[in-house]
């Protein structure tokens, strides 16, 4: 039986832009191909920039939660 793949969670809530955005990009680009990744973001700029960058790079993602103080984004592609 095939086990579900564990996703990596990267908590960037304590970082502010530009460091949060830089660390998010590094995590996305260095992850193992096809391995799900969840980013936890709180900085307002990063919460806007990360989804925009993912769309530009045509990387598949979905927003799991988007609250006033934080956002979680799951990258699958």
From TrEMBL:
The keyword DNA repair does not apply. The keyword Transferase applies. Keywords: Transferase. It comes from the Bacteria. Transmembrane segments: none annotated. Pfam families: TusA (PF01206). Residues 10-76 form the UPF0033 domain. This is Sulfurtransferase TusA family protein. The lineage of its organism: Bacteria, Pseudomonadati, Pseudomonadota, Gammaproteobacteria, Alteromonadales.
